[in-house]
Amino acid sequence: MRLSKRVETLTPSTTLAITAKAKELKQQGINIISFGAGEPDYNTPQHIIDAAYKAMQDGQTKYTPAAGLPELRKAICKKLLDDNQLTYEPANICVCSGAKHALYNIFQVICDPGDEVIIPIPYWVSYPEQVKLASATPVYIEGFESNQFKITAEQLEAVITEKTKALILNSPSNPSGTAYSKEELESIAEVCVKKDIMVISDEIYEKLVYDNVEHISIASLNDEIFKKTLVVNGVSKPYSMTGWRIGYVAGDKDIIRAIIDLSSHSTSNPTTMAQWGTLEALTGSQQPLNDMVKEFDKRRKVMIELLNDIPGITCETPQGAFYAYPNVSALFSEKITNADELSSILLEQANVAVIPGSAFGSDKHVRLSYATSMQNIEEGIKRIKTFVENNL
Question: Taking every annotated instance into account, which residue ranges of this chain make up the domain Aminotransferase class I/classII large (predicted)?
Answer without folding.
Answer: 31-384
